[in-house]
Amino acid sequence: MSSPWSRSVSRRTLCLLAAGSLALTAAACGDGESTPAGGKVKITVTGQPPTSQPFERSVFDADVQEFEASHPNIDIDPHEGFMDPKTFSAKLAGGQLEDVYYVYFTDPAQIIARHQAADITEAVKSVPHVNDLKPELLDNFRDANGKLYGLPTMNYTMGLLYSRALFQKAGLDPDKPPQTWDEVREAAKKISALGNGVVGYADYSKNNQGGWHLTGWLYSMGGAIARKDGDKWVADFNNDNGKKALQYLHDMRWTDNSMGAKQLLEAQDVQRMMGAGQLGMYMAAPDNVPVLVKQFNGKYEDYGIAGMPGGQGTLLGGEGYMINPKASPEKVKAGLEWIQWKYLNPDRFEKHIQQYVAELQPVGLPAEPTPDVWTGAVREQQLALKAKYANVPAANYKSYVDTTSRIKGSIEPPNAQQIYAALDSVMQAVLTDQNANIDQQLSSAASKVNSVLAQVK
User: Which Gene3D superfamilies match (predicted)?
Assistant: First the structure.
């Protein structure tokens, strides 16, 4: 995967495979070495792209050199990769955790509860532009007392990715994508009526991805997967919202025949269908668009992204960085300087975008090449620069940008991957068995999810 967008997708795919690997980790035991008086501070950091992604690797390595030149008292020791669930637990337990390490948005609550991250509440007060970050993203890195343990560096929200080409062929207006699930259903009927194997709407149902997307469905209806009941978490989908979401899927699959006969799909299956011009719509974040272009022979002008149908909420995800709890104060300070300079630096927006333009990378998509983590004047500055240098049809994503700026985004539930595994079976049942008992499926899944949630501390 060569684009930064596909890199983001691969990181989320790893997250889906992690299946709660953090739950069993012991507290990290960093080296805690102090910095010699008058000497340089050396910090290890994750996030260096692999050599198989030459553009991203070259940008990262150039940034390290530029940062060290402008911060002569800090040495960066970059480590390749992001979060590998096969090794992360062992690194935590064995004291090999980097000083600055990458996390998915699903990770901080568990990491904070196990004292595996440094408290940066006071140190971050000297970091520029923190107050310009979206408060809901910062809250994902806070504990119950409001103490801060990390910074968000990338954000995505789910929406509706659709084929503008198929919309036109089906007599639909590609500049007016569906805003409700009823409109999605009607559009899916018209698209599937084109025949020749064209599918109106597709969805995931295996490898935890079905549960992930069912969560998106629930959020779009103002519902939830789990809620706090006193001091414990309980399942919150065995209700009218859960029934409504599954009934839509059932009816599109079996009554309308607009989802196709082939089921048990995951991300690559659906992306392949869209790239081949055989799919009208699916739930996705904007980072799917470059994947369709670079891996599945799609064209940027053929795709649009709408906000999440229903407009009552959307699934919010992303990534950020935290700091080893055993890092010295000097390393904490140096680590925060690196995170801010590299990932959260409005002064470098234009240069970063110009790098993408020079290498013919996409500019104008909703999140890359600068992250969608900002509010206020910084966000306006970011949007203006992306519009100035856009080399993809940014107007195709206007509905998404407008919608996500006003609807509530909610993060994934605790122990998300174990919950998604339990919910996969619900999606599979509804999409493969016309006579599936929705009430029974929801009740059974709720029991499993409550068992998972009982492990949350």
Answer: Periplasmic binding protein-like II
